[in-house]
Design brief:
Layout lengths: L10 E2 L4 H16 L9 H21 L7 E2 H16 L1
Parallel strand pairs: 1-2
Helix pairs in contact: 1-2
Protein name: DUF2277 domain-containing protein
InterPro entries: DUF2277
Organism: Rhizobium sophorae
Length: 88
């Protein structure tokens, strides 16, 4: 879908509301095809972002796993290593 949307489930510490909102914003930008809506569409854009953020938070709060939480720094380090190899 969109490379900027990061997995938010099963991390320690859990995803913040800001991270969930940012993911919802990226999703709406991708679906709408615009990064900044016109004044006419601004309300619909924000309503969609807020609605998707609420749904995403509900999803994250209701998911269950038997796996231990992942460490954010460890996952970020692996991503940086993949990027270094890819663009080296």
């Amino acid at each position: 879908m969109c490379r900027n949307i990061k997995p938010l489930f099963n991390f320690d510490p859990p995803a913040t509301d800001h991270e969930v909102h940012d993911a919802a914003l990226q999703f709406v930008r991708k679906v709408s095809g615009t990064t900044k809506p016109s004044k006419r569409n601004e309300l619909a854009f924000e309503r969609a972002v807020n609605s998707i953020a609420v749904c995403a938070r509900e999803l994250l709060d209701s998911l269950e796993t038997s796996q231990p939480p992942r460490d954010r720094e460890e996952v970020a380090a692996k991503a940086r290593a993949r990027t270094a190899v890819r663009f080296a």
